[in-house]
Amino acid sequence: MKENNVLVVTTENIPGYQIDQVLGEVFGQTTRSRNVISDFGQSFKAMVGGEIKGYTKLQTTARQEALARMQKEAANLGGNAVIMFRFDSNTSSLGDSVNAYGTAVKISPLSV
């Protein structure tokens, strides 16, 4: 199963579906380093106010990568959904770390 076919929700249940099997915790992690030269310019911008677009882009890219890795891990376990999905992030001098995590499950549509 391709990772992009893995449904990801923040809830415990998915309306219209039943959970057939719980496969366990799955994680997607990434750490993105910042560009030292860009970092200097971004720091200056932070002093004068306004959005720091370089950091916003870095965070967005890191979240997308962590999410895709988590979906791939769920698919590798045979799951087609992740429930109770969450992000956790941390910024350090090395860069921004993002963890995506949840519970991989197999779901099927509820029969009517």
TrEMBL record:
SUPFAM superfamilies reported for this sequence: YbjQ-like
The organism's taxonomic lineage, starting at the top: Bacteria, Bacillati, Bacillota, Bacilli, Lactobacillales
One Pfam family it belongs to: YbjQ_1
Family (UniProt) = Belongs to the UPF0145 family.
Name of the molecule in the record: UPF0145 protein IV68_GL000850
Which source organism? Weissella halotolerans DSM 20190
Supply the InterPro entries for this chain. Answer: UPF0145_dom_sf, UPF0145_YbjQ-like
